[in-house]
Amino acid sequence: MVFQDQYDVIVVGGGHAGTEAALAAARQGVKTLLLTQNIETLGQMSCNPAIGGIGKGHLVKEIDALGGAMALAADKGGIQFRTLNASKGPAVRATRAQADRIRYKAAIRHVLENQPNLYLFQQAVDDLIVENHRVAGVVTQSGLQFAAKTVVLTVGTFLGGVIHIGLQRHQGGRAGDPASIKLAERLRALPFRVDRLKTGTPPRIATQSIDFSGLTEQPGDTPTPVFSFLGRRQDHPEQISCYITHTNEKTHDVIRNNLDRSPMYSGEIEGIGPRYCPSIEDKVVRFADRSAHQIFLEPEGLDCNEVYPNGISTSLPFDVQYDIVRSMKGLENAHITRPGYAIEYDFFDPRDLNPWLETKHMPGLFFAGQINGTTGYEEAGAQGLIAGLNAGLQARGKDHWYPRRDEAYIGVLIDDLITSGTKEPYRMFTSRAEYRLMLREDNADKRLTPIGRELGIVDEVRWAAYSEKQQAVDAEFTRLKMSRLAPEKVDQQHVARVLGEPLSKNTTALELLRRPKVDYATILDLLGETKSVSDDVAEQVVINTKYAGYIDRQKDEIERLQRHENTLLPADIDYSNVRGLSNEVREKLQHAKPQSLGQAARLSGVTPAAISLLLVHLKRTG
Ligand code: FAD
């Protein structure tokens, strides 16, 4: 039976992509249904209980700037916060929060349950309803049919999921959850390119069975970083430490002696695993000369007694996992509460997606998250937001929107995926972005909140906070520009102590702030003032003043490239007719079918000279 209720957007899957997708659709005011296998697992972290990190923290801030839930939930659930790369430049600084699994999930569920226009329903989806080659709804496991204008699929590692522990294998979406077999079969029958990937997770350990006394303690940073632009330090729960131990030669011997029982090395697993988050057996084989690997013992929460040993993800048999764990310092008497495992699953070639994450083969159907070949909660959440936003925009009859590479890491993520596809689980790094100085964590709100407001996904509260902050930044900027220091009016001895030299000519506070060694506190000291603006306002003034020259240069470069970036390549372009292209470049372009010159320019092996030839061709034929 088809329900009378017609939804604008149906989101399938309540993981990290699904929750952001459902929220981004509903925030626009469209009627949205989130269908998921189990309401209890909304926002569940399948693997390590942590949000953010290098590149990933940038994504979380961008999701937040566009009104998403991930950063706020991390603030409510975070039990150890750090700023990574704190001593480096602002472009690569990144926030990371160790999260209490239960609190994080509860925060996500709270946001979902209180979002107007969003309806939750617990059912697995088995099939799609297709009318006139367009998706028109979904059919659940028990035969219920739900109609919708657009459907967003975010079913993570569940499609055809197979769990491996040693040479034993069984179907599963992640430990404790069923795989989506029927839906996987249905999707495999459609003209999408599909392949297999794998990922893994370590065994978990009972906290009381660990001897922390000889281990290195790693407390969070003080003052505690805050994730959301709306977050407040006082919303954080109690903060606790992580600890560090190491693998050793004994651990490595255990692994080497049992490689024949590993599903990866015996050929049982075909899917390619995450290069940057390899299993411990992979690390021992690939880095055979290393005698130790660092393992972070991360608490899973404040009210539970489990620890996540970050760094020993494994699919070796349980008895081997036991020996691995017990070979390490502090873990000699460790009790394992859950075995580690690897999981293989279907993913779809993201080159079959439009940049707004709608599938090219079926209008109205959007894909987001791990099913597009990525790994990580942040990558999933970022795609979910864009897919849900665009599913909603389409349902409202509006134009699609997606960020460019110079606007957001989300733009880099999507452009990388749809242009180059991926052969291994894709994760974000700052090194993937060309315009790192523009795409900082600290200015994600400036880059994206006004756009989100225009698109209808940034609410009043966020907009008011954003506007107030920008006004304060502008006012402080102007104030420092107007604050003059004259040699005859300052205490030159004091100035020499603070600046390393006396003041030789009239200058403004802003000019002084441009000097590499002068910070905001020094400026206040010279002006004889105490601080009157918040830390984040002062930070914006300082970064935008100190890096103004570099930022302007990047802006020029972006503008220059943009003139070509947005030049569209005809869908039916025949590259064999483009004079002067090498066969290799021709094949690459033919295969990747870039939509614009910008996309073409980013394909590996496509040189600036090849782009010039394409421009000439377009002028000649256009
Ligand atoms: P998920 O979080 O998997 O959510 C999918 C959701 O869809 C679930 O709620 C599920 O119940 C629901 N669902 C599935 N099928 C259906 C259906 N037919 N109908 C309705 N609902 C359905 N990431 C890292 O960054 N580092 C790691 O080390 C890492 N290790 C991992 C290890 C394991 C074992 C697993 C399973 C994942 C790991 N990940 C890791 C990946 C991380 O968990 C995912 O990238 C992230 O959760 C993907 O988010 P998602 O929203 O795409 O999917």
UniProtKB/TrEMBL annotation:
SMART domains with a match to the protein in the record: GIDA_assoc_3
Described function: NAD-binding protein involved in the addition of a carboxymethylaminomethyl (cmnm) group at the wobble position (U34) of certain tRNAs, forming tRNA-cmnm(5)s(2)U34.
GO CC terms: cytosol
Organism from which the protein derives: Methylophaga frappieri (strain ATCC BAA-2434 / DSM 25690 / JAM7)
Residues annotated for FAD binding in this entry: G13, G14, G15, H16, A17, G18, V125, S180, Q370
UniProt entry keywords in alphabetical sequence: Cytoplasm, FAD, Flavoprotein, NAD, tRNA processing
Family, as annotated: Belongs to the MnmG family.
Cofactor dependency: FAD
Lineage: Bacteria, Pseudomonadati, Pseudomonadota, Gammaproteobacteria, Thiotrichales
Assembly notes: Homodimer. Heterotetramer of two MnmE and two MnmG subunits.
Record-level Gene Ontology MF annotations: flavin adenine dinucleotide binding
Protein name: tRNA uridine 5-carboxymethylaminomethyl modification enzyme MnmG
